[in-house]
Amino acid sequence: xFEKVLxxxxxxxxxxxxxxxxxxxxxxxxxxxxxxxxxxxxxLADESVCIGPPAAAxxxxxxxxxxxxxxxxxxxxxxxxxxxLSENARFxxxxxxxxxxxxxxxxxxxxxxxxxxxxxxxxxxxxxPVVPGSVGEINDPEDAIAIxxxxxxxxxxxxASGGGGRGMKLARKEDELIQAxxxxxxxxxxxxxxxxxxxxxxxxxxxxIEVQVIADSHGNVVHLGERDCSLxxxxxxxxxEAPSPAxxxxxxxxxxxIVRKAISKIGYLGVGTVEFLYEDGKFYFIEMNTRLQVExxxxxxxxxxxxxxxxxxxxxxxxxxxxxxxxxxxxxxIECRINAxxxxxxxxxxxxxxxxHPPGGxxxxxxxxxxxxxxxxxxxxSLIGKLIVHGACREDALRRLSRSLDELVVTGIETTLPxxxxxxxxxxxxxxxxxxxxxxxxxxxxxx
Length: 448
Known about the structure:
Blueprint: E1 4-7, H1 11-23, E2 27-33, H2 40-44, E3 47-52, H3 63-73, E4 77-79, H4 89-97, E5 101-102, H5 107-114, H6 116-125, H7 141-151, E6 155-159, E7 168-171, H8 174-192, E8 197-201, E9 207-215, E10 221-233, E11 236-242, H9 249-266, E12 270-279, E13 282-289, H10 296-303, H11 307-315, E14 332-339, E15 351-352, E16 355-357, E17 364-368, E18 375-376, E19 383-391, H12 394-407, E20 409-411, H13 417-423, H14 427-431, H15 438-446
Parallel strand pairs: 1-2, 1-4, 2-3, 4-5
Antiparallel strand pairs: 6-7, 6-8, 9-10, 9-12, 10-11, 11-14, 12-13, 14-19, 15-18, 16-20, 17-19
């Protein structure tokens, strides 16, 4: 097992990794920008190293500074968390070239799945169903028109690299397609340094359902069920739950086994999430995230599996501590992403937190690095915490979530807490009757 892990991240995920390491008897090194010197994970880590000024490009994305911090502290592994360098294959290679362990999949798998075109080809060959679309990248708008005549409209033009909805444009008819290709390509090039785009059939009202998998170096692969991430705004997840209200046990087991066999076939190592659109009883692959997900606590709550602990142990060469037959799904879990944003305009609201009081009680978990008196910097993602609740059934979880939202106190900044309090009153959401466009439609009606 590792003796010391450097955590190449910040915020609640850095704190989550620190906690798992300490429970395993592993020392931690926190790296931080000058803006994060008072961050909770920095205060709690065994050692900390400042790696640059506030801008992420000069700190959390500064590979030479991170590697220097690992060297001077004697770390023997690096955990990238999510975001930043977590899906950067070159960073994983550099970590390994310095004789350290990268706590994640191989650089080859990161690279394979980081390009949505090659990922789609790979998973299709492994037996996973995919959305109808172009075989490869679109080099010319005229090629897009020819493909569109075969696939049919509406179509989604998507960036091969990156995510978060950038480089993604909808075309409902031919005269919109050329502009969509040009705009998506320019947006992708600006956001990811890669203007490669491809086409997929646009599904009108699908669910966004993802399957959590974990695989060790001894040939063991396990799926941990699905999460429903259909409540989204601008293609960004807002709330996640498990199990999905849209699936029955047969559908759940079928897609789980399909993913499990495919992950085994490609020889994947570590934790990963295979994401699908689900409509009319059919699953369509959209991407695979080769890292820990923001919403991993939802799976932990319904399975009792510590994903971060397993991830670290697997990277150290150990076997999974359980088999597929050991996995039991218990009740329902729901996660709300609490952001430092105005609850309606979604304008970021950095600043000093005057009061912070977390909710408590049975089945309530709050993953957050915020504390009273902490100043939220304006330089990074606005996520300040994740409220996760667990209940014996979905109705119990919803009641517990409502109570917990009312208990959670954050003053001094704007947060999205009121958004979730309003959302819980909606009959469609209460019934689990929603899709990936539902939240934006609801917000438009709510604010009109």
